[in-house]
Amino acid sequence: MPLVNVIRGDRLDSAPINVRTPFIRIPLWLALSWWTLKALGRLAVVLVRFWYVTGPAVFFGWLYLRWGWAGPVGVVALVAVVASAWGFGHRPSFLRFGWWPVLARFRRWLYRRNWHAAMVTAKLAVSFDSHTVLPVLRKVQCTAGVDVVTVRMVTGQIPDDFAKVAERLAHTFGVRQVKAVPGARPDVVLLRLFRGDPLAKLVRPLPVPAVPEFTALPVGKREDGDGYDLRLFGTQVLVVGATGSGKGSVIWSVVRSLANGVTSGLVQLWGLDPKGGMELGMGAPMFARFARKDYTAMCELIEEAATVAKERAGKLYGRTRQHTPTPDEPLIVLVIDELANLTAYLTDRQLKDRIKAALSILLSQGRAVGVHVLAAIQDPRKEVLPFRDLFPTRIGLRLAEAAQVDLVLGEGMRDRGALCDRIPQNLPGVGFVVIDGDPTPMRVRFSYLADDEIRDMAHTYGRLRVIDGEFLDGAA
Ligand SMILES: Nc1ncnc2c1ncn2[C@@H]1O[C@H](COP(=O)(O)OP(=O)(O)OP(=O)(O)O)[C@@H](O)[C@H]1O
């Protein structure tokens, strides 16, 4: 409160010009007519603007006057019958042209009701030149479980401003999650509001592709309802998740998508399960090489893979930039269940150093020459996994701490919606991935193979030859 130069009373600022406004006497009938005309004009604007309410209201009013209750009830029944027939007859077109547009109009009305308050409380309203400016709600489109709201930003705003307050917006609009992605134009942001959770239900094992498509292996479902296809060519894959987060389901989903390649010899899986074969043991026949107890055998497997990678790189030098798998030179995928056991917790220092050296060669040189790594780990810190950055594809399942999200998925990914630390324990197999060409992380759920399904798959497609350095009976 100011303590000097204060006097009581209203302060009147001196006017720049003093103008005496003219006094005109208007007859009452003229004023009344003007007000009536203005009210009629406003009514016409409202009637036209909310045509989707006024049109049906007028139509039903007319039906009622003409035929009594039978009129409106008959028309409602007719619409219900036609809609049901359309919905059952051709569901995709009914949803696209019938149901979603109607729902979108309703949802737009809901969002508009809260828009002003939501923008002000989320600090997205901007004060400029002594007035408040709000982002403009342009359009709402609905699809299964998701509303896409097109928003024109205020000058100076960027999509990340919306991403930062996404959680606040989700609570305000009563949806599960909000994601902000850049729109088609630089001044537009798209808010994706997720109403329900399409990933709440378990994803059953997916059909095994006849020939594996190494750029798009079907492994799960995305939250926008599409299937999630993992790219293996040209990359190395790291799966990070707390205990019980479903790392095993990622591994088995990938193995299943490659199963026909294993049978045809186009793919060789080499399995390393330092936890004594707890995870990979059930499907051991899927692996051409398998090590579970002997750390020296595991180290030798990794060194052998690194040697293959170096030899192939030497052969392909100057000829091609991507190796094409053949039965003579198959795609090799090293599946490692708990990588930290090899890189951090191993007490034999010499062996640990050999493993680290071979792994870094494999990770850096293998991806172009068809020698890949699919590794799972619980703790993504640098001390545990020094070469985290050599895995271009990283999958974040449920994580223990918010700070781990950006370590796994990249800087700013938690702000953009990858809430790995908020994945509930009752949703194992759910995680976030960064999909090529999309700056916002995608929530996915990996398919789940029960133990019997893993055994069946191994029985149908498996070709195991060597366990811990020893040939299996009947295998050669
Ligand atoms: N994709 C999934 N869908 C449904 N349930 C799943 C899925 N993945 C895993 N589960 C369930 O969660 C349990 C734990 O999964 P899993 O053993 O794969 O986790 P993990 O991350 O490998 O744990 P740990 O690090 O302790 O080995 C499984 O026994 C299974 O019941």
UniProtKB/TrEMBL annotation:
Alphabetical UniProt keywords: ATP-binding, Membrane, Nucleotide-binding, Transmembrane, Transmembrane helix
Transmembrane segments: 43-63, 69-88
Binding site for ATP: G241, A242, T243, G244, S245, G246, K247, G248
Descriptive protein name: DNA segregation ATPase FtsK/SpoIIIE, S-DNA-T family
SUPFAM superfamilies: P-loop containing nucleoside triphosphate hydrolases (SSF52540)
Residue ranges annotated for the FtsK domain, each copy included: 223-406
Leader peptide range in chain numbering: none
Cited Pfam families: FtsK_SpoIIIE
Molecular-function annotations in GO: ATP binding; DNA binding
